[in-house]
Amino acid sequence: MTVTIADVKNSVRNIPDFPKEGIQFKDVSTAFKEKKIFKFIVSEIKSHYEDLGITKVVGIESRGFILGSTLAGELHAGFVPVRKPGKLPAETFAQSYDLEYGSDSLEIHTDSLDKEDVVLIHDDLLATGGTINAAVNLVRKFGVTKIYVNFFVELDFLKGRERIDKNVPVWSLIHY
Ligand code: AMP
Predict the structure, then answer these.
(1) Which terminus of the chain faces fewer neighbouring Cβ atoms within 10 Å, N or C?
(2) Cis amide prior to 112 (ω within 30 degrees)
(3) Could you tell me if 11 and 35 are in contact, meaning their C-beta atoms sit under 8 angstroms apart?
(4) Which residues, including other chains, have CB under 8 Å from residue 127's CB and lie 6 or more apart?
(5) Is the Cβ–Cβ distance between 126 and 151 less than 8 Å?
(6) Which atom of ligand 1 is nearest the CA belonging to 60?
(7) For ligand 1, is residue 63 a contact (CB within 6 Å)?
(8) What are the per-10-residue average pLDDT scores of the chain (176 residues)?
(9) Contact 68, 82 (CB under 8 A)
(10) CATH numeric code, 52-175
(11) What pLDDT shows up at residue 150?
């Protein structure tokens, strides 16, 4: 069986009203559990970034760790976690961001990147763009200038892409 982008889209499960009413939750675990689909996803994203000299992949907790760490291996890059507050044990930079109700924060170790790094930030899904904006701001704190952003899934109707810094190339494998 040759895997297509349509197969990948069909393998993502939609869960209505999770974790709260009105949210159409995209469950990527049903795509990742299929070995041919998982391999296709990794190889498609890898081929998009392999000639860019990526030195570090930054993955966002927690679903961004799954493909993020695999991509780091494939791209011969290091992996750096961005985590929720209080999870990283050493000195961190923090960046808060607004949610629908209230705010949240993300953290990164202060010794995890250098300004010469070429960074690919990966998360599983782009919705409103609040999370990725915070992650881009964290990476900028190191003086990094070469930043790319990748998602497995992008929810086009939420227009999260419009909130991301225009100097940062954004690419997603599948769109709904
Ligand atoms: P946002 O900051 O609104 O772009 O939300 C992106 C983050 O929230 C990602 O880390 C996603 O894992 C998660 N997320 C937001 N909306 C959904 C959704 N409909 N399905 C699955 N994950 C979502």
Answers:
(1) N
(2) no
(3) no
(4) 155, 158, 160
(5) yes
(6) 10
(7) yes
(8) 95 96 96 98 98 98 98 98 98 92 93 99 97 98 98 98 97 98
(9) no
(10) 3.40.50.2020
(11) 99
